[in-house]
Design a protein that fits this description.
It contains 14 helices and ten strands. The chain is of the alpha/beta class and 361 residues long. It has a single domain, classed as Rossmann fold (3-Layer(aba) Sandwich). Bound molecules: adenosine-5'-triphosphate and magnesium ion (MG).
């Protein structure tokens, strides 16, 4: 089992435009650059960006993939509201939050809000002209898991109607997305999730076709990928246990995006990962290979995609809520009194983001 193909693909991003592939170090093993770059993944409409660990790049990736896609609704289900702040440029969210929209499904006397998704360009001018919407999050989501738990236990006690009531709750997010996508005639949805499973993350798994799982190059992130795999597979764990006899849809994993990757700076080493990146790409690849039945194809090489450390560009992008695609090398910004420059490698990150986008939609 090797990560050669995944590394060769990185080199191919560069040579693709310059037409240099024939001279590259990888061309003898992979002469057909087009075949190398084509993952042939099935395309879906609805994704949740999910891993059960904080600070690994879920919100950053959600924001950037939303920017890269037209005709899309992004939903922030994390109570920390980081992707909401990206969309609102740091302003407090107004209007209906995802908490307000989901609550009536759990508390039947509440009425359903009529307006939910908001056009992003009204709040973040980098989205001007894009048909992109978002649903903000709310700190109230910290309470959501316990509300959902008591709604499910009440549903279980309804004589003769228990299955119907439970499936209405577990399918609530799916139903909400069906309504919103119909209203705006949009099919693509991306959901940013919290690092915890209970509550909105749980509901998002029944609402999407597939997961995009960011994993940072550290052991804790790999452990959380392992935990996520257990949740998808083990009938004694929350996700499958809560369904019991119900037939609800379950997501597969489309892609594991290995974030914060770094590449060797040794003279002559072109497109070779540094040691840490290599170790974690190998660990992730091996986990994917051992659980390939949970993925959308049967080839592990298709499902591990590196995303580099954004370096200064990442600081600039998050401080100013700018999509990575809108930055240009050498532009400079002042952040907290410090001048920070967009690094040249931002162009590689932009290509990596395009590659991810073109392999999900
Ligand atoms: N590819 C990247 N390169 C460099 N920095 C990154 C990258 N992706 C994210 N970051 C930075 O890492 C930090 C965490 O990112 P982000 O908020 O997207 O993670 P998260 O998984 O959504 O965290 P949480 O679970 O707490 O919501 C942020 O400071 C962000 O700017
Ligand atoms: Mg986040």
């Amino acid at each position: 089992m090797s990560i050669n193909k995944i590394i060769a693909r990185q080199a191919a991003y560069y040579s693709q435009d310059a037409g240099e592939w024939a001279n590259s170090a990888y061309a003898s093993e992979y002469p057909e650059i087009t075949a190398l770059l084509n993952l042939n993944l099935p395309k879906h409409n609805r994704y949740a960006v999910c891993n059960l660990r904080g600070g690994i790049g879920k919100s950053t990736l959600t924001f950037n993939l939303t920017y890269d896609t037209n005709d899309i609704i992004a939903v922030d289900t994390c109570p920390q509201s980081n992707s909401t702040a990206f969309f609102t440029r740091g302003q407090p969210a107004s209007g209906t939050t995802i908490y307000d929209a989901l609550l009536p499904y759990l508390l039947p006397r509440m009425s359903f809000p009529s307006r939910i998704a908001q056009k992003i360009e009204r709040l973040n001018p980098y989205f001007s002209g894009k048909n992109a919407y978002f649903v903000p999050s709310s700190a109230n989501l910290y309470e959501f898991p316990s509300i959902m738990e008591s709604a499910l236990s009440q549903a279980r006690s309804i004589p003769g109607e228990s299955d119907k009531a439970r499936s209405q709750i577990l399918n609530s997010f799916k139903d909400l997305l069906d309504r919103e996508t119909r209203k705006y005639n949009i099919s693509k949805v991306i959901i940013d999730t919290s690092p915890f499973f209970s509550g909105a993350t749980h509901l998002s798994w029944h609402a999407v076709d597939s997961l995009i799982v960011p994993v940072r190059t550290d052991q804790q992130s790999v452990d959380s990928l392992q935990l996520l795999i257990h949740l998808l597979r083990d009938p004694s764990r929350t996700f499958l246990r809560a369904q019991e006899s119900l037939e609800l849809s379950q997501p597969k994993i489309q892609m594991v995006v290995v974030t914060h990757c770094g590449w060797s700076t040794r003279a002559g080493a072109r497109n070779e990962p540094n040691n840490q990146t290599k170790v974690y790409l190998e660990k992730v690849h091996s986990l994917v290979a051992n659980n390939i039945d949970l993925f959308t194809t049967d080839d592990p090489d298709n499902h591990v995609v590196p995303l580099d450390d954004f370096l200064g560009s990442g600081r600039i992008a998050s401080a100013n809520q700018i999509p990575i695609k809108c930055l240009e090398p050498q532009q400079s910004f002042t952040i907290e009194g410090q001048r920070v420059e967009v690094n040249a490698s931002v162009e590689k990150c932009q290509k990596q983001l395009s590659f991810i986008t073109s392999n999900i939609w």
